[in-house]
Amino acid sequence: MQRLALVVRRIDRGRGRYRWLLVVPAVLVLVLTARVVSTDPVGYGVPFWPFANGSDRVEYRVMGEVTTIARAMRRLDAVPSALAAEGVEVLEARIGVGTMWMRVRMQVPDGTRCREISVLGDTGVQVNSRRVDC
Fold first, then answer.
1. pLDDT score at 13
2. pLDDT, position 14
3. Which one of 7, 52, 72, 102 has the fewest beta carbons within 10 angstroms of its own beta carbon?
C-alpha cells in the first residue's frame, strides 16, 4: 500500500528576525555622521561630493596653500604676510612662541567665508582650522 504524506515547508526565520536591530542603528549613525561632516567638510578633511560643493573645494585649496606656506616659512610671524600676498585676507593674527592663530577671510564662488587657523610648531608644523562666521 502506498502512503502519501503532506509536507509543509517551514522557513527558518530565526537568523534574520532581529537583523533590523543591527541595520537601523547603523544607518542612523551613518546619517548623523554625514550631517556633521557636511557642516564643515574642509575641517573634517572630506572635501568631495556628497559632503562638499564647489565653494568647499576652493576653501580646501586655500587651506592647502596655508599649510604649504606655514611649512615653508622658517618663522611663523612671516606667514600672515605671505598669505596676504596669495590673495587671502588676514583679519587678525596672534603669534606666540612656536604657535600662531589667525582669522582669515577668503572669496569663494558662493560669497565670502572665514576660518580660524592655528599653526603649532616651528618644525613639524600642524595646521588646524574651523569655519567661523565673518
1. 64
2. 64
3. 7
Distance CA 91, CA 102 (A): 7
Q: Give the separation between CA 2 and CA 91, rounded to whole angstroms.
A: 96
Distance CA 117, CA 66 (A): 9
**Which amino acid belongs to residue 112?**
T
Burial of residue 82 (number of CB atoms within 10 Å: 0-12, 13-18, 19+) = middle
Which pTM value belongs to this model? 0.73
H helices present in the chain, as ranges: 20-39, 41-44, 54-72, 79-85
**Residues whose CB falls within 8 Å of the CB of residue 98, separated by 6 or more in sequence, listed in order:** 76, 120, 121, 122
Rounded-to-integer distance, Cα 99 and Cα 7, Å:
78
The label of the residue with cell 528576525 reads 17
